[in-house]
């Protein structure tokens, strides 16, 4: 008969945990934590993003549009409309020489956390969007 050391615990093989099991369990628990979808916080102008063709350029005397996406202070997208958004387009040196003035974009709320800013510049030249100001 075989002697067993009393300080030794015998565990069936299917109950032995391998180091890889611990890593998998940590990954699963972190995935579970990621699945918790907290609602976004209040809108933050500094974190809103702007893009689209009208943000890069356009033609004088034509309607040009760009998009503003509302985000909170952590950069999480806000998916509800209703924010107060403003956007301006500033003429550069060449455009000012051609008589251009500051342009205020018309803003349309798309009711999904995005806003469409549409503007028209009267003179050819360089322009710069001031971005967008967003607030609840």
From TrEMBL:
Pfam family, one: Filamin
Region described as Disordered: spans on this chain: 1-55
Domain of life of the source: Eukaryota
Compositional bias annotation for Acidic residues: 21-37
InterPro entries recorded: Filamin/ABP280_repeat-like, Filamin/ABP280_rpt, Ig-like_fold, Ig_E-set
Per-repeat ranges for Filamin: 40-127
Name of the protein: Uncharacterized protein
UniProt organism field: Coccomyxa viridis
């Amino acid at each position: 008969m075989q002697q067993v050391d009393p300080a030794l615990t015998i565990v069936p093989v299917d109950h032995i945990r391998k180091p890889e099991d611990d890593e998998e369990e940590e990954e699963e628990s972190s995935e579970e934590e990621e699945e918790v979808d907290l609602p976004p916080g209040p809108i933050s102008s500094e974190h809103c993003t702007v893009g689209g063709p009208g943000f890069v350029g356009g033609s004088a005397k034509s309607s040009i549009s760009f998009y503003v996406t509302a985000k909170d202070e952590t950069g999480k997208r806000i998916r509800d409309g209703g924010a107060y958004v403003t956007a301006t387009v500033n003429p550069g040196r060449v455009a000012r020489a051609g008589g251009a003035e500051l342009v205020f974009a018309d803003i349309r709320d798309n009711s999904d956390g995005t806003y469409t800013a549409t503007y028209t510049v009267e003179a050819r030249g360089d322009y710069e969007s001031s971005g967008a100001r967003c607030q609840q």
